[in-house]
UniProtKB/TrEMBL annotation:
Function: Component of the A-type ATP synthase that produces ATP from ADP in the presence of a proton gradient across the membrane.
Ubl conjugation recorded as keyword: no
Keywords carried by this UniProt record: ATP synthesis, Cell membrane, Hydrogen ion transport, Ion transport, Membrane, Transport
Signal sequence interval, chain numbering: none
TM annotation in the entry: none
A GO BP annotation: proton motive force-driven plasma membrane ATP synthesis
Protein name, as recorded: A-type ATP synthase subunit C
The protein's assembly and partners: Has multiple subunits with at least A(3), B(3), C, D, E, F, H, I and proteolipid K(x).
């Protein structure tokens, strides 16, 4: 459909709720952690991933089959949602799904940075955004980061990436480029939203997502001890930090953890913050952020049941299912135990 004409949230929300019932739950994840890749693929074949497993099974096997099936299913699910949507609802959903364009840009840049094989990069791409097959193919064929930026010159990412490229050349780290992509995405996402109450609530959710991204970036910098200016990686649009407060707090991990714990997100992230103080890894905190966003989206979906928020809540839940299954498959391939794999999952 298109963004022209009237919106149709009642119809789209009803379709999305029907699909949400087919998402995997705790029991399915526990079963998968005790299977090998071939068994996982067979399990997926008997669920909502059956069409993708059958279509791709003659060309791929093992973890590659699972990866390709997950990404194709995710793209087809989200394409269907856009096909159902009309008017302003279409616009809001399309904006959010452009997060996968940002994901793909960062994935291709990482591939160029590490000289990865084109096939190894392609398996990690999620074709659920706005980029068409021709642009995706050109990105995959780009043999350098500079060539990737050339492919993106006519997109919202071109100018920010070109501006960040000089710092990348000086430091030889990808942080400036990846942050430029994130900032371009969120700036577009948050601009010109509508003013009714459900959309204001949705905007609050998006601001929380920006806050969590800034918090994660600040914690990474605080943990790293690197001589990097945190203000340079600040993403506008959230409520929790200002550019100057983020720069100050990122210099002291204890103060940063205390600040987040005392904020409006303290209840959701408190346990993870306590674990972060004792651990050497950000993994638990990042998982808690993912879980908090899922819970926040679900809560908004109940407050405004006929709006964009239940649709975004489903998109997050479906994305998380994909990431969980991918983590299980990769964990099995790496020889991790079921308990080690379960610690990598986000389950709410």
């Amino acid at each position: 459909m298109s963004a022209a004409g009237s919106s149709n949230p009642e119809y789209v929300v009803a379709r999305v709720r029907a699909r949400r019932g087919s998402l995997y739950g705790d029991e399915e994840y526990r079963k998968l952690t005790r299977m090998g890749p071939a068994e996982i693929a067979r399990f997926m074949e008997e669920s909502s991933y059956g069409a993708e497993i059958n279509a791709l099974g003659s060309r791929h096997g093992g973890v590659d089959l699972i990866e390709y099936a997950l990404n194709r299913n995710l793209a087809e699910q989200f394409d269907a949602i856009l096909d159902w949507s009309e008017g302003s609802l279409y616009d809001l959903i399309a904006r959010y799904l452009r997060k996968f364009d940002a994901w793909n840009v960062k994935t291709v840049i990482r591939g160029a940075y590490t000289d990865a094989d084109q096939s190894a990069v392609e398996v990690d791409l999620i074709r659920a955004g706005e980029f068409d097959d021709r642009r995706i193919r050109r990105l995959l064929e780009a043999d350098s980061i500079d060539a990737v930026i050339e492919v993106l010159e006519d997109t919202i990412y071109g100018e920010p990436l070109r501006a960040a490229y000089a710092e990348y050349e000086e430091t030889d780290v990808l942080v400036p480029l990846e942050n430029a992509v994130d900032r371009a995405f969120y700036e577009r996402l948050l601009s010109g939203l509508g003013g009714d109450e459900p959309t204001r609530q949705y905007e609050s959710f998006l601001k929380a997502e920006v806050d969590f991204r800034n918090a994660t970036n600040a914690l990474r910098l605080a943990r790293s001890g690197a001589d990097i200016d945190p203000a340079a990686y600040f993403i506008e649009g959230g409520d929790l930090f200002t550019r100057s407060s983020l720069a100050r707090l990122a210099q002291n991990l204890d103060e940063l953890v205390e600040f987040i714990g005392d904020s409006q997100y303290g209840d959701e992230l408190g346990p993870a913050l306590r674990e972060l103080e004792e651990a050497d890894s950000l993994i638990a905190f990042e998982h808690a952020i993912d879980g908090a966003l899922l819970a926040y989206g679900d809560r908004l979906g109940t407050i405004h049941p006929v709006s964009v928020t239940p649709v975004i809540s489903y998109i997050l839940a479906k994305e998380r299912e994909t990431e969980n299954i991918r983590a299980i498959a990769r964990g099995k391939e790496a020889g991790l135990s079921p308990d080690e794999i379960e610690s990598e999952l986000v389950i709410t």
